[in-house]
Amino acid sequence: MSKLEIITVPDPILREISAPIETIDDDLRRLMDDMLESMYDAPGVGLAAIQVGVPKRLLVLDVADDEEGPNPYFMVNPEIVSLGDETRVHEEGCLSIPGVQVEIERPGDVVVRYVDRNGDQQELAANGLLATAVQHEVDHLDGKLIIDFMSRLKRDMVIRKFKKQARAD
Ligand code: NI
After folding, report:
1. Distance of CA 93 from the midpoint of ligand 1 (Å)
2. Ion ligand 1 — residues with CB under 5 Å?
3. pTM beyond 0.90
4. Domains of the chain
5. 8-43: b or e for each residue (b if 16 or more CB lie within 10 Å)?
């Protein structure tokens, strides 16, 4: 396995819409493994393929705490098929926007349909942090970021900061 570089704002690739995946082969499974390793290393609880420069509808997630041990999900072509009425507020971070946290209110329950690592169709009912993380990662596949939940003014400030930083590097 190898660690992948995680792309940060303001790289425009993060705004791309990711394309559906047609086949799950060894190359894709290798990408899943590398993404998971990179996510654990960061550390983070979710990572979308677009964040490592691959515009495909693939994400990895693991919201288990240290005591629970690893519980990774690999989701190919995830689709949110239903959202609950109750909401959950969470201060979300993003590996592509290091150091920035945004308080976001989202549905607290989701049902997500996806194809797993073995090519089998799955349906998962998630709540709590997993529900939040699924929605956050699916947003990435549509080019949406947590800064889009901020006011325009705050968002512009964040982007300016990252642009300045990118120039300095
Ligand atoms: Ni993110």
Report:
1. 7
2. 94
3. yes
4. 12-168 (3.90.45.10)
5. bbeeeebeeebeeeeebeeebeebbbbbbbbbbeee
Tally Cβ neighbours within 10 Å of residue 144: 16
The reply to whether 137 belongs to the active site is yes
**Secondary structure of residue 84 in the 3-state scheme:** coil
The candidate with the shortest Cα–Cα distance to 127, out of 113, 107, 149, 102, is 107
Question: For 57-104, how does the pLDDT look when each residue is reduced to its tens digit (9 = 90+)?
Answer: 999 999 998 888 899 999 999 999 999 999 999 999 999 999 999 999
Number of Cβ within 10 Å of residue 130's Cβ equals 21
Ligand 1 midpoint to CA 63 (Å): 14
Is the pLDDT confidence value at 32 over 90?
yes
Distance between Cα 15 and ligand 1 center (Å): 12
Task: Compute the distance between CA of residue 138 and CA of residue 84 in angstroms, rounded to an integer.
Answer: 16
The whole-angstrom separation of Cα 12 and Cα 19 is 16
Distance 153 CA to ligand 1 centre (A): 20
Q: Which helix (H) or strand (E) holds 167?
A: helix 152-168
